[in-house]
Amino acid sequence: MSWVSPKTTDRHPLASTFEYFLSLPLTHLHDYATFSIFHGGFSLYFTHYNFSRVSPLRSAIYLLEAPPSKTMAASVPFHSLLFLLLLLLSGAIYSSSEHLIGVGTYDITGPAADVNMMGYANTDQIASGIHFRLRARAFIVAEPQGNRVVFVNLDACMASQIVTIKVLERLKARYGYLYTEKNVAISGIHTHAGPGGYLQYVTYIVTSLGFVRQSFDVLVDGIEESIIQAHDSLRPGSVFLNKGDLLDAGVNRSPSAYLNNPAGERSKYKFDVDKEMTLVKFVDSQSGPIGSFNWFATHGTSMSRTNSLISGDNKGAAARFMEDWFDNGPQNIPRRVSTIVSQSDLTRNQSRLLDIAARFKSSRGKNVAKSVESKVRVRNGSKRKFVSAFCQSNCGDVSPNTLGTFCNDTGLPCDFNHSTCNGRNELCYGRGPGYPDEFESTRIIGEKQFKMAVQLFNKATEKIEGKVGYQHAYVDFSNLPVTVPKAGGGSEMVRTCPAALGFGFAAGTTDGPGAFDFKQGDAKGNTFWKLVRNVLKTPGPEQVECQKPKPILLDTGEMKTPYDWAPSILPVQILRIGQLVILSVPGEFTTMAGRRLRDAVKSFLISLDSKEFGNNLHVVIAGLTNTYSQYIATFEEYEVQRYEGASTLYGPHTLTAYIQEFKKLATALVNGQTLPSGPQPPDLLNKQISLLSPVIVDSTPIGVSFGDVKADVPEKSTFRRGQQVNATFWSGCPRNDLMTEGSFAVVERMRDGGGWVPVYDDDDFCLKFKWSRQTKLSPESQATVEWKIPESAVAGVYRLRHYGASKSLFGSISSFSGSSSAFVIV
């Protein structure tokens, strides 16, 4: 391509710059620019800031547009080029009607065996298979001239400070200062069915026997890869917003604490939990919708504390449903959502199908190449993906177990104030809508969110326009001065406290009760447990006074052996995309705490600049973001000391401190200020201790190979939709190979004319991969593939296949596969 006008021999002053970029190999040019064809012309967007070799075009994005021409590949007439060049301080081009948008997603499932799950703190809840896979999902929105924000949603219990630190280090190595802690938010959906051991503070890794490197690595890798995908896919596009109420996907699990909030404040709201879902829709200018992210408050506790299968719980399920819905055509019902619609029962050609199936007996296990095994999946990894994320908000006191709380022994409702049954917390459980089937409860709550998101997605017409911005600061919450109203008028200065957990924390919640004789709403404590506490750390009188009325069970903020038990320095962050403001908070705000924070920030922004921020301003809370510091209850809820108040680490003024610090961020956002970064959180990676035993060796009985079928499907069997088919294989430990972006379990269907094609895998809601050892310390193990045949399954010949990896005594890893006998679905 030549940058010479056909009417003159004079070279355009920018010709050398563009020729430099056009001369780059494609692999290098992709690092600087993205191309797109639209509106009958072509565009070249330079997406990096640091053009140190291309002065004076440093820190700019350039747009060239030309009408289509048969000779365009050879030359571009400059009289027809539209240069929207604003070479001011940034030397940038800005398109007022569009942002740059990109999305990405990557597998973060992690170790599916031996690792304690994060969330319930139940030492018996050890992973032993997969319900469906976990993913990181990212979006980037950028102004064409510069500012950009990144939001990553994790199918994980929460964000982790050490994970965030290491992701940012990788992004800096790859992109320089394009992505930093200031404009990158990493948020967790709060599933309680994901592998633990990836946080750096002692409190959160006790039950996982310390740090689990595989859990940590898969998160860092997956987050980085999702951001890379989003960055590489940046294109001109638009962002639309819609909101709506979802009424039956959450209930307040601590209603007695909520009722302690002022009656006048409660009267402003119809419900005791937030029902509003806020959705953003990303539309590429050329290819149409590429993704959607939404925020809605409900806990990831549809799966119980006894579940051992890795699962994204209700929000992960909703994301899988919506992505499949879009991939199968937005006008169609997703074929993998088995219960949304039924199809007629097809029974034709049953005899012919049985004859075909009879020819395919279970195969002996065989070794396969890792390169082959990792590519066996239903969803095309190379295809550009529609990305849908169901993000967490102020879910602190919101349970998805909507049928209420009942005593397991009597079936009667639990005590209202303490959630106990005859004084015992461990008998009181919330019941999901699919009770007693937790998988059904997960499906129902996930499907409700999915259906609401589809409604909002299809009707999203409010276009997000305006600036992209961000503010971030690290704040020491262990001794933060806070101004609060004073009784009788005026104000006074108080302080937050070093982190501490109250007795009500050990009682757990109705989603996952605790043990012993602890109970929620305990504002006094117990002499025996105080003696036990003092063995670890006796809180000083200043800490006791600061935390009142919380009776301290664990003085985690002052416990430093072998390293910090709880965080002191926390990140607070605002991301702005036009009239949408995202408040990134490092914990679980209760319903009313979240309302106060949202309302305070919204009214404050409007008061600072009513022209820039009007009544169409939308403020959402992104919970469990960038790190984790447990709960944030209101001052009044803190007084009651139910679980959420007892888990509010930094004392009764924690919420007021957050509101104060977010107002500082809001002021800086409006005024264009750069806030001091604040004290840096510690990097404790090198101090981590792991007591989880490694995989020593895998073996099989004599004469048996890995992948051999141990229990086959019945011979000449026929199944109907809604029935379940199983096969069990001799296997190796799933920790040998996480099958990232691959599958342990696959359902294959015979093509017309022969050959097998995967149609369902372990990322489908209808398929479960279960793994177990013969005995606790046995090197022999087995894997079971369970498939509940969905209503939308096509009649035909099928078989089940297992992929795995075994470890030899000398440490080498070998991949294998095996398949069941064929069977028929009619």
UniProtKB/TrEMBL annotation:
Cofactor dependence: Zn(2+)
GO cellular component, one term: extracellular region
Active site: 399
Residues given in the record as Zn(2+) binding sites: 190, 299, 588, 631
Keywords: Endoplasmic reticulum, Glycoprotein, Golgi apparatus, Hydrolase, Lipid metabolism, Membrane, Metal-binding, Secreted, Signal, Sphingolipid metabolism, Transmembrane, Transmembrane helix, Zinc
Domain spans labelled Neutral/alkaline non-lysosomal ceramidase C-terminal: 662-825
InterPro entries: Ceramidase_alk, NCDase_C_sf, NEUT/ALK_ceramidase_C, NEUT/ALK_ceramidase_N
Reactions catalysed: an N-acylsphing-4-enine + H2O = sphing-4-enine + a fatty acid
Compartments reported by the entry: Endoplasmic reticulum; Golgi apparatus; Secreted
Transmembrane regions: 32-51, 72-94
Enzyme class, UniProt record, top EC level: hydrolase
Molecular function via GO: metal ion binding; N-acylsphingosine amidohydrolase activity
Cofactor note (record): Binds 1 zinc ion per subunit.
Predominant place of localization: endoplasmic reticulum
Neutral/alkaline non-lysosomal ceramidase N-terminal domain location: 100-660
EC number in record: 3.5.1.23
GO terms (BP aspect): cellular response to oxidative stress; ceramide catabolic process; long-chain fatty acid biosynthetic process; sphingosine biosynthetic process
Taxonomic superkingdom: Eukaryota
Pfam families attached to this UniProt entry: Ceramidase_alk, Ceramidse_alk_C
Family label: Belongs to the neutral ceramidase family.
Name this protein carries in UniProt: Neutral ceramidase
Organism annotation: Noccaea caerulescens
